Amino acid sequence: SFSEIRIKTGDGYTYYFGGTYKNLEFSRTKAEGSFSPDTISGWKLRKIVAPNSKTMEFIYDEVQKDRSIFLAFTPSINTIITVPGAIVGGYSQSETIKYTNTTYHSLLSEVRVNDERIVKYTYSEKDYTENDQDNFDNNLSNLSDPHVFGLPQTELRLENIWVGNPSGQTV
Question: What is the Cα–Cα distance from 149 to 22, expressed in whole angstroms?
């Protein structure tokens, strides 16, 4: 499977990490006109299998994206054209390159024991106002030095944790 880490301990337990994009934390950086491969920065615990084959699974359903915009300014390049004994001319050039970095975070949604849900996490989204976006756009357009600015695409907060038994009753 995709980028899975499996660890088996001396007492017979097997721990599974990663395996799908939902079980990973990764980032993707894109410069204007180019693409770079994903960089995995975290493998989430996906499953534990006990020596007696009982399982505990961790389900990740939501993905939170944080996006940052980088503006990289190359230093001015001064070139002087010379002819033996005389300076003929010169020029200065500077370039700004826009990079976008998006980080994808896995959020735990459920915990299951032997395919029975025992914990359920519920999240709610933060709404961004027009003022939040305007402030972001203004800061970005007034840059004179390299900076990083970012307004998360979605920001989630933990709203509720339900804990129950395998029969579905709240405990």
Answer: 26
